Amino acid sequence: MSIDSSALAALAGRHSQGAKYMTAPAPSRAQWQQAAELALRAPDHGGLRPFRFVLVSEDQRALLAELFVNAARRWGQSEAEELQRAHDRAWNGPGLAALIVRLREGEPEVPAHEQLLCAGAGLMNFLNAMHLMGYAAKTLSGAALRDPALQAAFCQPGEQLLAWVLAGTPLKPALPRAKPGIASSAQAPSQAEVCSDWTPPVS
After folding, report:
1. Which long-range contacts (CB under 8 A, 24 or more apart) does 171-179 make?
2. Do 109 and 46 contact (CB within 8 A), yes or no?
3. What is the largest CA-CA distance in the chain?
4. Tens of pLDDT, residues 2-38
5. How many whole angstroms separate alpha carbon 65 and alpha carbon 123?
6. Which of 8, 129, 167, 175 could form a disulfide with 35 if both were Cys (CB 3.0 to 4.6 A apart)?
7. CA-to-CA distance for 183 and 188, rounded, in angstroms?
8. How many helices (H) and strands (E) are present in the chain, helices listed first?
9. Can you tell me the distance from the alpha carbon of 121 to that of 117, in angstroms, rounded to the nearest whole number?
């Protein structure tokens, strides 16, 4: 079997990059769409397509900032600096998309955890597509995602706002957070342990 080592090397070079290491231009509307279509190549038992992406345009950032500030107040933040930080998060990244997930209950053949796996695989395909297009990208979450008003602003009934995806032109090459072979925490598997041989139980 012929193996495209250049494609594997390109994927091996993908790492998350923070917004401070991104600049304009952001992905075009067509590039966002292409990444979303590649996300649909994720394993999807039952063909439920339990996820979608919603793009936030530059002229919508002020509206998003207002939602962030109101959410911060509801979470007990009142200091001017705290509210300013919440406000500024709306401008994270040159490009911004929301990952929306819909987990359908009562699917006997496709339990909720399988649907969530599909959404996660779709997100990874989305990030890989951004990387192969030459963009830096990162996924963010946080307490604000659980704010009811923010959820209502992005979601239809039965959906959940799960994460943000930032994307833009990288200012420097992406680097891994941890050195190869070294786990980031005592509980995390090492690089070698991520793929190991099965040891059957002794009967």
Report:
1. 171/21, 171/22, 171/23, 171/136, 172/21, 173/13, 174/13, 174/14, 174/15, 174/16, 174/17, 174/21, 174/136, 175/15, 176/15, 177/15
2. yes
3. 64
4. 888 999 999 999 999 999 999 999 999 999 999 999 9
5. 24
6. 129
7. 6
8. 6, 5
9. 6
